């Protein structure tokens, strides 16, 4: 009550919907890829990021280089991790030449065990202050803070429990679905319903817990502006126009 929080918005952070949405925005703006099985949330501190955010073949958790993921501030037993990055932002960087690796070493930059990967981070993300700067940049300089340049990552509606035909979906932060990050080529080819359209639509088929909701599983008005734009986007992806 003190923070005037919207319960659904707050819950969307806890169920993974907001991290998926933000990761998709980063991937589509920066040309990065989404994990095929969704975000993995490895637990770690800010100092652990260089070891975690590298390819699995090099001891990390990523399928390959150039991917997005999210770090958890909690261990599997629910205990908190010291110096977590919960309220911050970060990027993991590879020093791909010997000269750059020497630079990291000479400046005392914390790296992974190989000296090849480092992390640049801010532990505090002051969104209330930063938003005003973004609004001003758009209004005065017509300059976006970040804009999607590709459709590489998507956020699908994933069932949070066994759903029965006839139920109405209640969108992000609700009790029926959560957002799951997926590569757009997989979500579009599979006919996954995007989380952004999973509001006030009725299921015509049952959907098992943990499974994506499909376009064919819902009764939805496809003539609305949002649905039409989404279907045009999917058509562009299928036909190689993106």
Describe the structure.
The protein is an alpha+beta fold and 242 residues long. The chain folds into two domains: 32-141, no CATH class; 153-238, Type Iii Antifreeze Protein Isoform Hplc 12 (Alpha-Beta Complex), CATH 3.90.1210.10. Helices cover 29% and strands 15% of the residues. It has seven helices and seven strands. The chain has helices at residues 7-14, 17-30, 49-52, 98-106, 127-141, 184-189, 225-238, and strands at residues 89-94, 117-122, 153-159, 168-170, 177-183, 199-203, 218-219. It has a three-stranded antiparallel β-sheet with strand order 4-6-7, with no helix packed on it. The protein has a two-stranded antiparallel ribbon with strand order 1-2. The protein starts with 6 loop residues before the first helix and ends with a helix.
Describe this structure in a few short sentences:
With 242 residues, the chain is α+β, with helices and mostly antiparallel strands. The protein is 29% helix and 15% strand. It folds into two domains: 32-141, no CATH class; 153-238, Alpha-Beta Complex (Type Iii Antifreeze Protein Isoform Hplc 12), CATH 3.90.1210.
Name the structural class: alpha+beta
Number of E-state strands: 7
Largest sheet: 3 strands, antiparallel
**Count of domain modules:** 2
Q: What integer value in Å does the Rg equal?
A: 20 Å
Q: What is the beta-strand fraction?
A: 5-15%
Sequence-ordered SSE layout with sheet pairings:
Layout: H1 7-14, H2 17-30, H3 49-52, E1 89-94, H4 98-106, E2 117-122, H5 127-141, E3 153-159, E4 168-170, E5 177-183, H6 184-189, E6 199-203, E7 218-219, H7 225-238
Antiparallel strand pairs: 1-2, 3-5, 4-6, 6-7
